[in-house]
Amino acid sequence: MSGAERLGITADVLVIGFGKGGKDLAGTMGREGRRVVMVEQSDQMYGGTCVNIGCVPTKALVHHADVRRPGDDPQSWYHDAIGAVTDLTTMTRGRNFEMLDTLDTVAVVTGRASFLDATTVEVAAGDDRLTVSAATIVISTGSVPVVPDIRGLRDSAYLATSTDLLHTKELPRHLVVIGGGYLGLEFAAMYRQFGSEVSVLEAFPGFMGREDDDVADVVVGILRDQGITLIPDAKVTEVRDGSVDTTVCYEVGGRPRTLRADKILVATGRAPAVEGLHLGRAGIRTTERGAIEVDEHLRTSRPHIYAIGDVNGGPQFTYISQDDHRIVADLLLGDGTRSTADRRAVPHTMFITPPFSTVGLTETAARERGHNVRTAGKLVARATATHRPRIMGDTRGLIKLVIDADTDLVLGAALISIDSQEVINLVALAMRHDVPARELGNSIYTHPSTTEVLNELLGTVARAGAQVPAGGRPGIARSPSTYWARPKPNDQSSGPFSV
Ligand SMILES: Cc1cc2nc3c(=O)[nH]c(=O)nc-3n(C[C@H](O)[C@H](O)[C@H](O)COP(=O)(O)OP(=O)(O)OC[C@H]3O[C@@H](n4cnc5c(N)ncnc54)[C@H](O)[C@@H]3O)c2cc1C
Ligand SMILES: NC(=O)c1ccc[n+]([C@@H]2O[C@H](COP(=O)([O-])OP(=O)(O)OC[C@H]3O[C@@H](n4cnc5c(N)ncnc54)[C@H](O)[C@@H]3O)[C@@H](O)[C@H]2O)c1
């Protein structure tokens, strides 16, 4: 838009927010010949969070941190890494813009959208105003970081969100991370690897609270061995700024403690980005947690308006935003059979080093649901078919699969290993298509690869060694190096691991 003028356009489909799902939907509909308007509030955000301030830059930084050699100066290495990552995101942002801009049917409008009514949105850019009307509207405005209401925190000069850190070229000396979820632990591991001193304050009594204890112990062990101070059960009470650093006051079990920091990363979750959209004017309902309310086809309370990605309160992952787009596209162009209800075995990876990947049920959750569970697991260092981790010089971690002993179907997996972000996709696919564990174990995999550990854990030889004598557990091979068991339903033990 140029000049202080007010224009009005009409489209078949209006998409608000240029993230993964929004971009894919705009492209899909545009290629089908629909007239699409994509509204994005910032020219620095074409492509959305993932490519500009999320997955891509952070994983690139993890790589840069990992390849720093002991003799490299931490500050200049970090400075150059931020520069290289900025170049990468600039290139990716441009490509994302081109992908839509080169379609004759799609117009990208840069400005902030807010609803005027159920079919019209106003887009503001400086003094300019544009109205866009459409029969179908898709909201994909993502999420924003939550900064908890802790005395002194919001006004602290040392406070940073993940986005701020990605634009900071000075390596923190002591980074205090509040929140030990995906974001907090990835940043903690990355900055420690760059050379910062790092402490993580987590409100929950333990880290990796949703994982089995044996899995959590291995992840926590790796992070602690890396030199990260992990403080669970921490209640942050106050932040007191000084002239060169700040003091983070917290309590553990009621006992007051302090940490000094020159940067505080807030990693306490992200909230749906609905501010300023004026959803009420369109009659769009939100949930108690502030997300846009949707049904399983991602329709809002106004059936011609859809909400996809982080803004609808679902799991906050790029590939979920992408899959949300498939569900809406299926409804608009296909037979409408896709829905969130048909999603099975969605994998996740936390990009620490080595990466930690999960899918499906933990052993504990599987037992709670009444499955007759058997587990197959090994420390990576103690497995034989882990040539690839050995070649890569990193044998830290654990491979654990949770199997239904009655059906031989895989119920879940937790993989902490080099390449786990790839291997988990294979396990997830097997789960989705009901491939039995024995087939996963007897498949042909390339060599040397990390996947071939599945041959060792689930293949014929392992199964033969795992015969369970009638009547119970005696005789089951369960040494520190391997476990393969069909425990009794109430047996919560899951194998003796040590890092
Ligand atoms: C640091 C970090 C690391 C992450 N790492 C991973 C990872 O490794 N793997 C993974 O799967 N997920 C990761 N995520 C999560 C992932 O980035 C998000 O789940 C995903 O990007 C959400 O996509 P989306 O399509 O919902 O919205 P977004 O990609 O956030 O896009 C929303 C867009 O809408 C725009 N917008 C907002 N309001 C308006 C408005 N009123 N008008 C116009 N435009 C508007 C925004 O500017 C933005 O560009 C990470 C997130 C962060 C913060
Ligand atoms: N690899 C990935 O896929 C990846 C990476 C980064 C982020 N993400 C996504 O981004 C989203 C945001 O990540 P996140 O880690 O900020 O959120 P999160 O919800 O995953 O974790 C927040 C953590 O902060 C803790 N917490 C909350 N308030 C606290 C307080 N006052 N003091 C101390 N601890 C507190 C919570 O107990 C929780 O462990 C996630 O939902 C995740 O899906 C994904």
From TrEMBL:
Entry keywords, A to Z: Disulfide bond, FAD, Flavoprotein, NAD, NADP, Nucleotide-binding, Oxidoreductase, Pyruvate, Redox-active center
Pyridine nucleotide-disulphide oxidoreductase dimerisation domain segment(s): 346-456
CC cofactor note: Binds 1 FAD per subunit.
Region described as Disordered: spans on this chain: 469-499
Disulfide bond recorded as keyword: yes
Molecular-function GO term, any one: NAD(P)H dehydrogenase (quinone) activity
Active site residues of this protein: H447 (proton acceptor)
SUPFAM superfamilies in UniProt: FAD/NAD(P)-binding domain, FAD/NAD-linked reductases, dimerisation (C-terminal) domain
InterPro entries in UniProt: FAD/NAD-bd_sf, FAD/NAD-binding_dom, FAD/NAD-linked_Rdtase_dimer_sf, Pyr_nuc-diS_OxRdtase, Pyr_nucl-diS_OxRdtase_dimer, Pyr_OxRdtase_I_AS
Disulphide connectivity of cysteines: C50-C55
Binding, NAD(+): G179, G180, G181, Y182, L183, G184, L185, E186, E202, G269
Keyword ATP-binding: no
Binding positions for FAD per the UniProt entry: K59, T141, G142, S143, D310
Compositional bias of kind Polar residues: 490-499
Limits of the FAD/NAD(P)-binding domain: 12-322
Cofactor dependency: FAD
Family listed: Belongs to the class-I pyridine nucleotide-disulfide oxidoreductase family.
PANTHER family assigned to the protein according to its UniProt record, in alphabetical order: MERCURIC REDUCTASE, PYRIDINE NUCLEOTIDE-DISULFIDE OXIDOREDUCTASE RCLA-RELATED
Name of the protein described by the UniProt record: Pyruvate/2-oxoglutarate dehydrogenase complex, dihydrolipoamide dehydrogenase (E3) component
